[in-house]
Amino acid sequence: MSEAKYLEIARRIESLIDIGHYAVGSKLPTHRALADEFNTTPVTIAKAYKVLAENGRIESFVGRGSFVRDRSQLKQVIQSHFADNEWNFSILQPCYADHLESLHTQLKNSFDQLSNPGLYGYTEDTGFSAHREAGFAWMQKFGLRTGSAEQTLLTNGAQHALSTLIELYTKPGDRIALEAQTYPGILSIASFLGRQPVAVAMDEYGMLPESLNEVCREYQPAMVIIIPSHQNPTGATMSEDRRRTLASVIQRHPLWLVEDDIYGFLNESPVTPVTDLIPEKSFYISSLSKAISPGLRCGYIKAPQNQVSRLASFIRATVWLASPLMFEVASHLIMSGTAIEMANKQRDIARHRQEIARHALSPYTLSAQKTSFHIWLSLPGNWQADQFTLTAKERGLLVSSGSYFSVDLNQFSVDLNQFNTEPGQLNVEPRQNNAIRLSLMAIADEGSFREGLRELATLLKTGKSGYLQF
Predict the structure, then answer these.
(1) H/E run at residue 357
(2) Domain membership of residue 46 as a residue range
(3) Quick one: average pLDDT of 176-196?
């Protein structure tokens, strides 16, 4: 039996999973039963199942069988390993080409200056005032105008900030309004905590206010989460008008806003956060993970004044406090101006890489800003997103399928096309949104980056007519 056949069978099974024939959590047929169906051998089916397990689509247990996994697993989207024979276009992180040596020097100097004994013990649950001041200064640099250092709380990165706010300000069974294509980390938190995601339609400027208004009337979500700048995965950045209209919708409904603005530093000039427009019911998140390093694990939440005590108490009850050692280093980088310089350098690299990518992939439809870390690439008709992702991996190209980011839009009982929107509306229905996300920053060497783009372009052009029919 040829190697190609078990790979085609794996793709066929994956397609059946995607269309719901095999639901998440359901048990797959035995090797022998599926072998009979596909007119092949159990050994071939076992090899196909192994491919699916390696790609995170199924999991197998001795004596129990194989089961469909939730496709929102972060491991599928963020493949953090870096092999010499692979091009990793899957993970959004700073480009370390010229960054790593400078960062190492700065961190070493900062750690050499850790002389405050208080850093090694417990401190107040909101963290040292100097660390909160640095965090607020960081957020102000990229557009935040409301609040204060006293309203700034420290978390172990933006993901911790998201999980904290979802757990504290919603309860199991509550609905959370999300952009129709969104960061899978949010979906994972919602799944683990028993919250129900509800999709809000998007266009090229991000979340549609009219769609959010409809979702609020129909589903009464307890929270709405947005990524207003360089949205992950579509790259959309909300205009000032869009932000104001969205704020007015949120103001009319009883729900919290969580504004995840970790890519705000990539804007070429500061943009007013939605939080500034409705500060009494909004939480604003920023971090150093994308601008400096994910290893710092320094996140910041600007909270409404009347929620500071409650949020601080919850953080204390769950993790006690975010590491003061890391925040001392982060504060030194921020207050010295080094962090801003590093962030600006990353923005410059992103701009350069966008130009390279747009040239290499010019025949295809790309969505991104000029300084985004990633692009959202619409696949040609001879490719399906999950099929392309699997085939690309076989060739050493790690990309993220658009299916990993989709929130179900089928809950709508109204025609979203009736709304008057700004030009350039994206097609966001998961069954039609046939795209992949490509990170432009994880491959440090520019020569290797260009080579990977050439391989991608070749694969896109080659295409396949579809799945092998059995």
Answers:
(1) helix 338-360
(2) 3-68
(3) 93
